[in-house]
Design goal:
Number of helices: 14
Radius of gyration: 21 Å
Order of helices and strands: HEHEEEHEHEHEHEHEEEHHHHHHEEH
Structural class: alpha/beta
Largest sheet: 4 strands, mixed
Strand order of the largest sheet: 2-3-4-11
Number of strands: 13
Helix content: 40-55%
Length: 434
């Protein structure tokens, strides 16, 4: 037993009480993957031979011939639909054609960070600037900006550098911002494009698993504040999302694993067959098998696109995409942003949500064990680490995304057993305090 309250216990308990009150249950048609899916959400190119999970790997091509790729559509009101292109090793000419059809003006600001810059900046600058290879008849001017890497730089001060550059260049409202990088770059570029001249177009080119399956899709943009993560931002949808899984070849293993936590989330909240597939293919995802990776990204994007279509601005069902995030943000906040990768905090948070759901009798022990097992197989944390300094915040009401019923079902609710919440927090804290 712990003699005095742990800093983890104080901070996690306190952080988990923002002023949120009402309850929302995911509609069955959105929770149950066995029900019919909308036919307009996902399409394939004429070259694509299958949309089922592949069973064997393939090598990437160095040919200049067009490759097979998937297209997942994000269906929105008022003609704001946009495609997510998913392929591996797009030839230069094909990438030019796909990307430039979504550039409406003649000036582009391509933004990345100092880690991605030496790897892919010049490649994508040349792709966007290739007037001869394009079929749009335009002469594009492509400017670039390199920002410092890291979650600690996801701030108003760094985001303002994008606005400074755009103003220095005299970019007008027909200009297009392009985000090349992970979630931090995508969120900042998206927010900058939302506020520059009251809104300009932007394109997402994600280079991490986390960004490919989550943050690049759906239009949530923003920056962190010392008092909270992602508390300053806007909903601003991109013109397209361009995913070339080849960029994952340079992604560090830890960041790859972090992104897998978001893939697992989709299976837990709404797609039981996808979760079962993950259980059999998690080793392939860790090994960067190209076919398994492409399918996991595609299916994740399909799930998110369906939710965003139903609830673009998170008034209801979209909140379920935050399974594990409330606990995870408490862990990130208390340990200092950067100590944990986002997906690592979410992994622990999903385990806490599962344990709490089990305590209340909403899921059985077998499902909870499957959740722990797949996250452990992905080499993701499922328990809190040693004590770290944490910051206490104010009390209030709380809503949580919890699992309820069969695999693939969840609820977004404030109607839960507070004792189960407290007992779950204490259990996780005791694991590190014993």
């Amino acid at each position: 037993m712990v003699a005095t309250p742990s800093p983890w216990l104080l901070a996690t308990t306190a952080f988990l009480f923002p002023t949120l009150t009402t309850s929302f249950t995911v509609p069955p048609a959105l929770m149950n993957p066995s029900l019919p899916k909308p036919t307009s959400t996902s399409t394939s190119t004429s070259l694509l031979s299958t949309t089922v999970p592949p069973t064997s790997s393939s090598t990437s091509t160095t040919s200049t011939a067009p490759i097979e790729y998937d297209t997942v559509r994000v269906d929105l009101a008022n003609g704001r639909d946009y495609p997510i292109y998913i392929g591996s090793s797009f030839p230069h000419s094909q990438a030019t054609s796909l990307l430039r059809r979504h550039v409406h003006g003649k000036r582009v600001l391509l933004i990345t960070n100092d880690r991605i810059s030496p790897l892919y900046l010049e490649e994508y600058r040349a792709i966007l600037a290739d007037d001869e290879g394009a079929d749009d008849g335009k002469e594009l001017v492509v400017e670039t900006l390199v920002l410092p890497d890291g979650e600690e730089n996801k701030s108003l001060e760094v985001m303002t550098l994008i606005l400074d550059r755009a103003l220095e260049l005299g970019l007008d409202r027909k200009s297009t911002f392009v985000a090349l990088g992970g979630g931090v770059i995508g969120d900042m570029v998206g927010f900058a494009s939302a506020v520059y001249q009251r809104g300009v177009n932007f394109i997402q080119i994600p280079t991490t698993v986390m960004a490919m399956v989550d943050s690049s899709v759906g239009g949530k943009t923003g920056v962190n504040h010392p008092l909270g993560k992602n508390m300053i931002g806007s909903f601003h949808q991109p013109q397209c999302v361009f995913i070339d899984t080849r960029t994952l070849s340079t992604l560090p293993d830890r960041e790859l694993r972090s992104g897998i936590s978001e893939i697992v989330k989709y299976g837990l909240i709404r797609d039981a067959p996808f979760f079962s597939w993950q259980e059999s293919r998690v080793s392939d995802l860790l090994a960067r098998d190209p076919d398994a990776t492409r399918y996991a990204i595609k299916r994740s994007c399909e799930n998110k696109a369906e939710v965003v279509r139903e609830d673009e601005k998170e008034a209801g069902v979209r909140a379920t995409l935050n399974l594990g995030h409330t606990f995870g943000h408490a862990i990130e906040n208390g340990s200092g942003y950067g100590t944990f990768l986002h997906g690592e905090g979410v992994s622990i948070g999903m385990c806490m949500a599962a344990r709490m759901s089990e305590r209340m009798g909403w899921i059985d022990e077998g499902l909870r064990e499957r959740i722990y097992d797949i996250l452990e197989k992905a080499n993701l944390p499922v328990r809190l680490p040693k004590d770290l300094p944490m910051t206490k915040v104010a009390d209030g009401k709380l809503r949580l995304i919890l699992l309820k019923g069969e695999l693939g079902n969840c609820v977004f609710t404030g109607d839960f057993d507070v004792d189960a919440l407290q007992a779950t927090i204490e259990e996780f804290v005791e694991e590190i305090s014993a």
